[in-house]
Amino acid sequence: MSEKSHNTDGARDRNRGFSLIELLIVVAIILIIAAIAIPNLLRARMAANQASGASTIRTINSATIVYSSTYNDGLPPSLAAMGGVGVANCNAAGLLDNILTVPPYHKGGYAYDYQPQGAPIPNPPVACAAPGFNEYLATAVPVVVGTTGQESYCSDEPGVIRFDISGAKAGSVAACESFPPLQ
What we know:
Layout: H1 2-15, H2 20-71, H3 79-82, H4 98-101, E1 106-107, E2 110-120, E3 133-142, E4 152-156, E5 162-164, H5 173-178
Antiparallel strand pairs: 1-2, 2-3, 3-4, 4-5
C-alpha cells in the first residue's frame, strides 16, 4: 500500500506545474533576450529606411529625366506631375507611385519633397497645365530623426545623390551641393 501511495504522490508532483521561481527565471531570460534584440532590430529598421530613402531619390532623378525627354516640357513642375493613373501625359505622367506623388509624400519613414528651381521654361506645350523647369531639388528627410532614419538625402539635375548625417533638409541647391556625395 505504501508503494501505491508513493506512485500517487509522484503523479501529483508531476502535475503541479511550475514554481514561481521557475516562472521568474524564464521571464528574466526572455527580458534579457529582448533587451539584446530590440536595439538591433531598431538599427536594422533605420538602416533599411535610409537605404529606401536614397533609392527613392534615385527613382525621382530617373523619373525627371524620363519626363523631360518624353514631354518636351523641361523638368517636371511637381511630384504630382510625375504621378497619376490612366493615360499618361505631362500633367500626370505615371512615372512614380502615388505614395510619392500624393500628400503627405511619406514612404518608409521618410518625407519627400520636390521643388523646381529657377525660371519656368519658355513656350511650354499647350497641353501641359504647368510649365517645366531647367533645375530641381529633390529631398528625403527622416520623419523622426534618430528613429525612422538618421541621414537626409538630396539631389538636383546632375543626379548626384548627397547626404547629411544630421538629418536636416537641404533648403537650396547650394546647400545640397555642399553635402558629400553618397558613395
